[in-house]
Design a protein that fits this description.
single chain, about 280 residues, alpha/beta, Rossmann fold, 11 helices, about 45% helix, binds adenosine-5'-triphosphate, L-valine transmembrane transporter activity
């Protein structure tokens, strides 16, 4: 077995016209680790995910999954074992919950086009196995009871969980979650945290983008902070939340957002501070 990191981004840069959205950003994710990616609005977090998943071709830099360079095409990246969810939920609203997960599962189905066309025995066996796996995943994320519901009818938090189930259906070794708790209430957020821990416990490594720093500091093994396309700080949650550069970067936000951010950071610090 290779001892290569689950995911490695080496000095990734992305330039849009005159804008350098990412400047030599590196990140390493060990197997079984949860890494958080935080930073003020426009820091380049989603652009970084897009570079990792082949949606954007980085201007320079390399991305390796399990030590092997990833292809530049999103579908091939998924097949290679890197799955993601999106900041804005991207489900098929007129399909059922089960069908949405099956879409993810089809990445792993082996039937050739002729078998699919003829609906032969191999196709039917494959379909049965796909449904079984999709149902297991719905059970895993807690959505079994609504498998026949149209996905557009699900509450927001359940739609986010469904997106995760669909990503898991591709059998990833690494899962990227872009703002998985955005718009969730505190109960849903806590359920999302527990779900991410359970995903990690199955052996999948996870990278999470989140604005909720308290969530990140209590979830992740390590945290990377991006500011204006640059890697500002990388370290354990304790190292990062105590770093004055991080507080300063967040205070650079518009005045109306400052107080909320200070409170988030303070809460995160207070919880983890040794008994204070
Ligand atoms: N396709 C694109 N074309 C041009 N500029 C882009 C493109 N995608 C992102 N950018 C720019 O790159 C910068 C980084 O944006 P990005 O969305 O990655 O930040 P972010 O950290 O994810 O922000 P947020 O927290 O608000 O989602 C921004 O200035 C953005 O306008």
């Amino acid at each position: 077995m290779s001892s290569a990191p689950a995911l490695q981004a080496r000095e990734v840069s992305m330039v849009f016209g005159g804008l350098r959205a990412l400047n030599n950003v590196s990140l390493e994710l060990a197997k079984g680790q949860i890494v958080g990616l935080i930073g003020p609005n426009g820091a380049g977090k989603t652009t970084f995910f897009n570079c990792l998943t082949g949606l954007y071709t980085p201007t320079s830099g390399q991305v390796l999954l399990g030590g092997t360079q990833l292809p530049g095409d999103p579908a091939e990246v998924t097949t290679a074992g890197l799955a993601r969810t999106f900041q804005n939920i991207r489900l098929f609203p007129s399909m059922t919950v089960l069908e949405n997960v099956l879409i993810g599962r089809h990445v792993r189905m082996k039937q050739g086009p002729l078998s699919s066309l003829l609906h032969g025995p191999a196709f039917q066996r494959g379909e049965r196995a796909a449904r079984e796996r999709a149902r297991e995943l719905l059970d895993f994320v807690g959505l079994s009871r609504v498998e026949d519901e149209l996905s557009r009818n699900l509450p927001y938090g359940d739609q986010r969980r469904l997106e995760i189930a669909r990503a898991l259906a591709t059998d990833p070794s690494v899962l990227l979650l872009d703002e998985p708790t955005a718009g969730m209430n505190p109960q849903e957020t806590e359920a999302a945290r527990q779900l991410i821990f359970r995903i990690r416990d199955t052996g999948i490594s996870v990278v999470v983008i989140e604005h909720d720093t308290k969530f990140i500091f209590t979830l992740c093994d390590r945290v990377t902070v991006l500011v204006q396309g640059e890697l500002l700080v990388e370290g354990t949650p304790e190292e990062v939340r105590g770093d004055p550069r991080v507080v300063e970067a967040y205070l650079g936000k518009p005045p109306e957002e400052v107080q909320a951010v200070v409170e988030e950071i303070t809460h995160g610090s207070a919880e983890g501070a040794s008994g204070e």
